[in-house]
Automatic annotation (TrEMBL):
The keyword Transferase applies. Keywords: Acyltransferase, Transferase. Residues 76-214 form the N-acetyltransferase domain. This is GNAT family N-acetyltransferase. InterPro entries: Acyl_CoA_acyltransferase, Bact_Acetyltransf, GNAT_dom. Pfam families: Acetyltransf_1. The keyword Chloroplast does not apply. It comes from the Bacteria.
Amino acid sequence: MRPADLATFDSDLGIARARGIRRVVLERDTPKWVEAELRLRGWTVEDELRLELAGDAQLAGSPPQVDVRAGSQVDPDWRARGELLRADHIEEDTRHGVPARAPAQTAAIVEHRRALEGFAPYLCAMEDDEIAGFLCTWTSPTGVGVIEDVYVRPSSRGAGIATALLHAAVTALRTAGAGRIVIAAEIGDTPAQRYARVGFRPDHVVRSCVLAGS
């Protein structure tokens, strides 16, 4: 977020809120007053660990035998992914000790993600003909591959599904011509350790402002 003035800030924030977005990344060139304005409005600051896989690197080890398919193929109407995104949001809010976001906020994010399907596709891991987990991949205009929205339902964890999804994502991004690949994780959370074990290396800490509650 890099608004030039308060009017642009309010416009950008309004668009983000309408889409259900509750996290604003504070980039290195984000004006200092933006964080101050967000803090004044009740947003809190969180840190995330940004990890990176070098442009010529592959993930360590062999991927677990998991059926990974394109989300557009197995869930074209986004019903299953919408349910998992809702579960992810509730789990995240519970972990942070804040009230669960309104279902409408999850619905707005689902519609936003659905609109971007052609640019930022999801990969889904299947288990008993149901989606057990997913992640999103996309490539920036500068050729940086991005992996985000990694989620596996609790009942399917510990079976290598997240690792299989990561391998599939790296393969897809490499095929699309991506160079280095980045992924983010909450500091101290289990996923950060998993990403490091398969080859992602810590690069820097990202500060974000997050809006709790509805």
